[in-house]
C-alpha cells in the first residue's frame, strides 16, 4: 500500500480586498498545481490569516507565483492565542524540521507583523528577544538574510475596538510573496488602449486564476472589448483570442475613452496592448463577430473562456439581425448588405454563452464570466446552468445598494450534447435596458 505524502501546515497572509474572491482563487490554484485545499478553519470571512495544509513547498511557491489575493505564505512553526501558547507550540515543533534553517553557516532575521495594531520598536524587540529559546545558531543579517522568520499578530477586524492582546499569534518561516505588484504594473491608467468598461487589472488576474489558465492554453473572450482579460491570460503564458460585435473597438477606431483625447490614435488596439507588456507572441487574433451567431466548426478549441458580457450600464447588449422576417429561401444576405443591430436580451445572451462554452471547451476547461443581478430579488436559482457545466464558485461584487455583479466560474464535466431548449422566468430588469431571467436552464 502506497504511503501518503505528509502535509505541512502553512500560513497565508491574505489581502483585505475582494474578500469573496479569495477562497475560490486559492482553491483553483492549488488544484492547478496538484494540491488540494485542506484546512482546519471552519470559515474564512474577512480574516487575513489562513492556515492550510499543502503537500510540498514547491506547490506553495507555485501558488504564490500566481495569486493576487494573497500577500505572503509562511511555513507555520507555531500558533497560539497567547504568547505562552505560541511558545509551547514552538517547543513541540520537530527540531529536525528547524535545523536546516538554523545551522551555524546560515543567516537570518526575524520580522514582526501586526494586523490592526501598530507596535513600537521597543515592543517589537521585546517579542524577538522572547524567542531566544529557539535553537538559532546562525548570524543575524538584516539586509540580505538567507532565511526570514516572522511573528504575526492578529488584533481582529474592528479598528475602533483594538484589544490589548492579540486574538492569535503565529510564527513561521517566510516562503514567498504573492503577485500583488501586478495590480499596479498592469493598471488600466497606464494602458495604451482602453475603453469605457476596461476591466480592472486585479479582477482580470483573479478571473484568469479562477479559470486555471496556464502556459500554452488557448483562452477565448467572446466579448473582448479592449482586451483586458486577454492580457491577464497572456501574462500566465496562454495564447489568447477574442471576438466583439463592435467594429470600431476591434480595429481601434472612433472616439477615445480617455479624458482630453477626442479620437483614438493610429496604434490604439488590442495587439498594441499586449505589445506594451511584452506579450504580443501570445496574441492569436481578434475578429469582428456576433456572439449570438458563432462561426465555429463543431469541436473543442478552448482551455478557458473568460469574459465580461455587456449588460446595459455603459455598454449595451447588441446582436446582428433584421427587424423584418427573412424571406423563405434566402440563405444569405447580399455582399452589400450591412446587418442592423438588435437588442440582445440577457437571458438569450447567457443561454448562448453557456451553450457555446459547453460545446467548445475541452473537458475540464473553465468558463468564467460576470452575471449582473438586482440584489433585492437575487437568489442562487437565478444563476444560469447547463448539464455539461458544473458550478465551481459564485462571488459577489457590489456595484450599488440595489445592484451587483457575480463572478461565476463553471467547469466542463461532460461532453457536449444537443439540447432542445431552456426554461426561464422573467424578473424585473437588473440594469437599465436589460432583461435578466432567473433560471436559464436546459432540458432534454
From TrEMBL:
UniProt-listed PROSITE patterns: N6_MTASE, SAM_MT_TRM11
GO-annotated molecular function: tRNA (guanine(10)-N2)-methyltransferase activity; tRNA binding
Domain annotation Ribosomal RNA large subunit methyltransferase K/L-like methyltransferase: ranges: 190-320
Top EC group: transferase
A GO CC term assigned to this protein in UniProt: cytoplasm
Superkingdom as given in the UniProt entry: Eukaryota
Any GO BP annotation: methylation
Subcellular location: Cytoplasm
Primary location class: cytoplasm
Keywords for this protein: Acetylation, Cytoplasm, Methyltransferase, RNA-binding, S-adenosyl-L-methionine, Transferase, tRNA processing, tRNA-binding
InterPro entries hit by this protein: DNA_methylase_N6_adenine_CS, RlmKL-like_Mtase, SAM-dependent_MTases_sf, TRMT11, TRMT11_N
EC number: 2.1.1.214
Reaction catalysis annotation: guanosine(10) in tRNA + S-adenosyl-L-methionine = N(2)-methylguanosine(10) in tRNA + S-adenosyl-L-homocysteine + H(+)
Domain tRNA (guanine(10)-N(2))-methyltransferase TRMT11 N-terminal: 9-180
Function: Catalytic subunit of the TRMT11-TRM112 methyltransferase complex, that specifically mediates the S-adenosyl-L-methionine-dependent N(2)-methylation of guanosine nucleotide at position 10 (m2G10) in tRNAs. This is one of the major tRNA (guanine-N(2))-methyltransferases.
Family: Belongs to the class I-like SAM-binding methyltransferase superfamily. TRM11 methyltransferase family.
Subunit structure: Part of the heterodimeric TRMT11-TRM112 methyltransferase complex; this complex forms an active tRNA methyltransferase, where TRMT112 acts as an activator of the catalytic subunit TRMT11.
Name this protein carries in UniProt: tRNA (guanine(10)-N(2))-methyltransferase TRMT11
Amino acid at each position: 500500500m502506497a504511503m501518503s505524502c505528509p502535509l505541512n501546515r502553512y500560513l497565508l497572509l491574505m489581502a483585505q480586498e475582494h474578500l469573496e474572491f479569495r477562497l475560490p482563487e486559492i482553491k483553483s490554484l492549488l488544484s492547478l498545481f496538484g494540491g488540494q485545499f485542506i484546512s482546519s478553519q471552519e470559515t474564512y470571512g474577512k480574516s487575513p490569516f489562513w492556515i492550510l495544509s499543502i503537500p510540498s513547498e514547491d506547490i506553495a511557491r507555485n501558488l504564490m507565483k500566481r495569486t493576487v489575493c494573497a500577500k505572503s505564505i509562511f511555513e507555520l512553526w507555531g500558533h497560539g492565542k497567547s504568547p505562552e501558547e505560541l511558545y509551547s507550540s514552538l517547543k513541540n515543533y520537530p527540531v529536525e524540521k528547524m535545523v536546516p534553517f538554523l545551522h551555524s553557516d546560515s543567516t537570518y532575521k526575524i520580522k514582526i507583523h501586526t494586523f490592526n495594531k501598530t507596535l513600537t520598536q521597543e515592543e517589537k524587540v521585546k517579542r524577538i528577544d522572547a524567542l531566544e529559546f529557539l535553537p538559532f545558531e546562525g548570524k543575524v543579517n538584516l539586509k540580505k538574510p538567507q532565511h526570514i522568520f516572522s511573528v504575526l499578530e492578529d488584533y481582529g477586524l474592528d479598528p475602533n475596538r483594538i484589544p490589548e492582546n492579540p486574538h492569535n499569534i503565529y510564527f513561521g518561516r517566510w516562503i514567498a510573496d504573492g503577485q500583488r505588484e501586478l495590480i499596479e504594473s498592469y493598471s488600466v491608467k497606464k494602458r495604451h488602449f482602453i475603453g469605457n468598461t476596461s476591466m480592472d487589472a486585479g479582477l482580470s488576474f483573479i478571473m484568469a486564476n479562477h479559470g486555471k489558465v496556464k502556459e500554452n492554453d488557448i483562452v477565448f473572450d467572446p466579448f473582448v472589448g479592449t482586451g483586458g482579460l486577454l492580457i491577464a491570460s497572456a501574462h500566465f503564458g496562454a495564447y489568447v483570442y477574442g471576438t466583439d460585435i463592435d467594429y470600431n473597438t476591434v480595429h481601434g477606431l472612433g472616439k477615445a475613452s480617455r479624458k482630453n483625447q477626442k479620437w483614438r490614435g493610429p496604434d490604439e488596439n488590442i495587439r498594441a496592448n499586449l505589445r506594451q507588456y511584452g506579450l504580443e507572441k501570445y496574441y492569436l487574433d481578434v475578429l469582428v463577430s456576433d456572439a449570438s451567431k458563432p462561426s465555429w466548426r463543431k469541436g473543442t478549441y478552448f482551455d478557458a473562456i473568460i469574459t465580461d458580457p455587456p449588460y446595459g450600464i455603459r455598454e449595451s447588449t447588441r446582436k446582428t439581425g433584421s427587424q423584418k422576417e427573412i424571406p423563405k429561401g434566402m440563405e444569405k444576405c447580399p455582399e452589400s448588405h450591412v446587418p442592423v443591430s438588435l437588442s440582445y436580451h440577457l437571458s438569450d445572451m447567457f443561454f448562448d454563452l453557456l451553450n457555446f462554452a459547453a460545446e467548445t471547451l475541452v473537458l475540464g476547461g473553465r468558463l468564467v464570466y460576470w452575471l449582473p443581478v438586482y440584489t433585492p430579488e437575487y437568489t442562487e436559482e437565478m444563476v444560469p446552468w447547463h448539464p455539461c457545466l458544473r458550478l465551481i464558485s459564485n462571488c459577489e461584487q457590489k456595484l450599488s445598494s440595489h445592484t451587483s455583479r457575480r463572478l461565476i466560474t463553471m467547469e466542463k464535466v461532460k461532453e457536449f450534447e444537443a439540447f432542445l431548449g431552456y426554461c426561464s422566468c422573467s424578473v424585473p430588469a437588473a440594469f437599465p435596458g436589460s432583461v435578466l431571467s432567473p433560471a436559464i436552464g436546459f432540458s432534454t
